[in-house]
Design goal:
The complex is a heterodimer of chains A (401) and B (131). With 401 residues, chain A is of the alpha/beta class. In chain A, 34% of the residues lie in helices and 17% in strands. Chain A contains 13 helices and 11 strands. The longest helix of chain A is centred in the N-terminal third of the chain and has 16 residues. The two termini of chain A are 22 Å apart. Chain B is globular and about 40 Å long. The chains are: A alpha/beta (401), B mainly beta (131).
């Protein structure tokens, strides 16, 4: 059995608009913040895993080294849709578990302010002047909008509607209430892109993007970075009491992709791979959903949050609506979900998201979350999913030191 | 009549328009696009099968924000056509939540999407409410 891996230092930048900072500035701020939080330097690091999605060929890891320390260590530049940050972290974790090094640095960064609608590609091209079949569907013209939609808001809207069709109880108002919760939570998070409380009426009356998701029910495209320093259990034992006290154990680190399902070519199945990841993570960590003091899950849209209550087994199968209506996912509820404000208000700088949600959980486990501290938090779960698909689930435990 | 071409190869035109799929001869998994091997069982033999024209709307959204050039609003959905899931727009209905609901019965319909420089007419498909 490979040894345990711990988070020694972790940080995130403020999410939002950073017009005066480029991608490397943001990554450097997060990376140096995490190193400083851990009490180590680049010279200690044995691996750098760097995630960036929108400029995946740019070699962000090496660009970052040139600003914070070129020590010659291996760099893994990773891109894995919205699970990019989680994938970077897991890459560093795997290097330690493999015994290749004692310390690793994982960074995720994205510049996404003003990016607008994502995912409108889907075999589309400008309307040709000659109808010539091309691509794997032999399409003669743009298909998005003509044969359903592959845009992100439309896709996740259908995922929520499908859940409602299967189990009942959903409505425009219910999905809007999920968003109301996350926007209320965000008022306590100074690093969130949007920290404004919104009433149900405001949310439902805002600009419709893809029914039933209005604009505040969609994740916010923004800039941001997050980074984490991970350390082997044996190395941690040699560090100071202060470092050991603040270290957070990675009790489970899981990455899955979507297994084939009948409809997955039509509408991405975000459920099966999330459920598989959750099941593996609970088994690895030796805990169950009832043990979680807080959950940061991938609410890229309000409709997505609902289905993930079920996929992460926070409720009985088919019971997500009742779970929400019981008040459980509010910060004073049984299983607080997205106390950071979630992607809908904190923002979603894609590659940073999968480390930032772990930072949020660590912040509470360390008892450092200030006004939004979940009292006595000992175990938390962080989940991300990217279409394509990739799902990352991490379970984190407070140090006993 | 002008020459016609389907928007996608899996749409068959003529007197009896319908959709087709590539069905894996090993496990029965169905695909609308060209596949190198079956994503379900790894088999590499496929046969063309006809998809039922009628189905049930299992999920939908009303898209109000789309890429430039895509007319909005429109209803995008997933239709269960006798066990095979199909992506398509719900057409010939007012695009509002009052007029569209999951569980509603729909059927395939085809319509022109435009004409290219050679005078060839492109034909698309959608699903319209039944009855």
């Amino acid at each position: 059995m490979a040894e345990d891996v711990w988070i020694l230092g972790i940080t995130m930048t403020k999410f939002g608009k950073h017009p005066d900072k480029d991608m490397v500035d943001l990554a450097a701020e997060a990376a140096r913040g995490a190193l400083s939080d851990a009490g180590v330097t680049m010279k200690d690091m044995g691996i750098l895993a760097a995630g960036n999605l929108m400029n995946a060929s740019a070699g962000i890891g090496q660009q970052l080294q040139k600003q914070i320390g070129q020590t010659g260590i291996p760099v893994y530049n990773v891109a894995n849709a919205c699970a990019t940050g989680a994938t970077a972290l897991r890459t560093a974790v795997m290097a330690i578990k493999a015994g290749e090094c004692d310390y690793g640095l994982a960074v995720g960064v994205e510049k996404l302010s003003g990016a607008g609608l994502l995912g409108a590609g889907g075999g589309s091209r400008s309307s040709g002047t000659h109808y010539e079949p091309s691509g794997r569907y032999g399409a003669v013209a743009t298909t998005d909008g003509r044969i359903g939609t592959t845009t992100m808001p439309g896709t996740f809207a259908q995922i929520g509607m499908e859940y409602g069709h299967k189990y009942g109880g959903t409505s425009f108002e219910l999905f809007a209430k999920i968003s109301e919760k996350n926007h209320a939570h965000s008022t306590l998070n100074p690093l969130a892109a949007y920290t404004k409380k919104m009433s149900l009426e405001q949310i439902m009356g805002d600009v419709m993007i893809a029914y039933p998701n209005t604009r505040p029910m969609c994740s916010a495209n923004c800039d941001g970075a997050a980074a984490a320093v991970v350390v082997s259990d044996s190395k941690l034992k040699t560090l100071s009491l202060e470092q050991r006290k603040r270290a957070v154990k990675i009790a489970a680190s899981v990455l899955t992709t979507d297994p084939w399902q009948e409809a997955c070519q039509i509408l991405p199945d975000v459920n099966t791979l999330t459920r598989n990841a959750a099941r593996q993570a609970y088994e690895q960590a030796g805990v169950g959903p009832e043990d979680l003091d807080l959950v940061e899950l991938h609410d890229c849209f309000a409709t997505a949050e609902l289905v993930h209550y079920d996929n992460l087994m926070l409720c009985e199968e088919g019971g997500a609506v009742d779970f929400f209506n019981s008040g459980a996912p509010w910060r004073d509820g049984k299983t607080p979900v997205n106390v950071s404000g979630g992607l809908e208000s904190k923002g979603h700088p894609i590659a940073a998201t999968g480390i930032a949600n772990i930072w949020e959980v660590c912040h509470h486990l360390r008892g450092e979350a200030g006004d939004r501290q979940i009292q006595g938090a000992k175990v938390g779960l962080a989940h991300v999913i990217g279409l394509g698909s990739a799902c990352g689930v991490h379970i984190l435990e407070k140090s006993a030191a | 009549m002008a020459e016609q071409v389907p928007l996608v190869e899996y749409l068959v035109l003529g007197d009896d328009p319908h959709l087709t799929a590539q069905e894996c001869t090993g496990c029965g998994a169905r695909f609308f696009d060209r596949r190198n091997a079956c994503a379900s069982c790894e088999g590499d033999q496929f046969k063309k099968v006809r998809i039922a024209n009628e189905g049930v709307l299992r999920a939908f959204t009303i898209v109000s924000m789309a890429a430039p050039g895509v007319p909005v609003p429109f209803v995008a959905g997933v239709i269960d056509c006798d066990g095979t899931s199909v992506r398509g727009n719900v057409v010939n209905v007012e695009p509002s939540p009052d007029n569209v609901s999951t569980g509603m019965k729909v059927r395939l319909t085809t319509f022109p999407i435009g004409t290219d420089d050679d005078g060839v007419e492109g034909i698309g498909f959608g699903f319209e409410p039944v009855g």
